[in-house]
Design brief:
39% helix; seven-stranded parallel beta sheet; alpha/beta
């Protein structure tokens, strides 16, 4: 039997990350990263070939990735959002948002570059519509996602043997979206949002493109509901 490709997915304990893990499980051996060990265990239990990787992404070191000599796929799906207008967003919110949404992504990618190079691998960054525009009340999050876009674009140019894909989903029916709608003071209407599995299928599309095709960016929006 040929060896199956392997993939590391962050933010895999729930939402889009868990959906991506489920979508890749039939074809990949998985290492699933997240802070919630119990939730990770629940996801892993239903996926043969998957292992949990309980980790605080803002504190990853070389020791955490030791033994990862070859990596075919790295999916960055972890992220945070704190709503607030510029005039009411303190520095600690900016720092935490950038630390998790950008700096942790850059550092994990840096640590795994040797393994990715060995496999001529594929890096997928789950961004957001906020990475393409900034709306009132979303500026710190949008700034982090614009920075994430720059990270992906730069990585693609610096590492031409890798494939790098940015996915820009609109609103997705997840626990995070439920929290966002609560902060916005509006109803949570999952029927108006993307299903996490729909975003996962987009990721699979990028990963399974023909060898002559490098899918650099994909924008996907809900068919119903508001465009953001």
């Amino acid at each position: 039997m040929p060896e199956r490709p392997n993939a590391l997915v962050t933010g895999a304990s729930r939402g889009v990350g868990a959906a991506i893990a489920r979508a890749l499980a039939p074809t990949h051996d998985l290492l699933l990263g997240g802070r919630d060990t119990e939730a990770l265990t629940g996801v892993v239990s239903g996926l043969p070939g998957a292992r949990p990787w309980p980790v605080e992404l803002t504190a990853v070191t070389e020791a955490d990735v030791s033994g990862m000599d070859r990596l075919d796929v790295l999916v960055h799906s972890a992220g945070v959002v704190t709503l607030g207008r510029v005039g009411e967003t303190p520095a600690e919110v900016w720092r935490r948002t950038m630390e998790i949404n950008v700096i942790a992504v850059a550092e994990l990618t840096r640590l795994l570059l040797p393994a990715l190079r060995a496999a001529r691998g594929h890096v997928v960054l789950i961004n957001s519509g906020a990475g393409q525009r900034a709306n009132p009340g979303w500026v710190s999050y949008a700034a982090s996602k614009h920075a994430l876009r720059a990270l992906a674009d730069g990585l693609r140019l610096e590492e031409p043997e890798l494939q790098v894909t940015t996915v820009y989903p609109g609103r997705v029916a997840t626990d995070m979206q439920r929290e966002v709608r609560d902060r916005e003071g509006g109803p949570y209407q999952p029927e108006n949002y993307l299903d996490p599995d729909s975003v996962a299928r987009v990721v699979v599309t990028a990963l399974t493109a023909s060898p002559d095709a490098h899918i650099t960016e994909i924008t996907v929006r809900p068919a119903a509901g508001p465009p953001n």
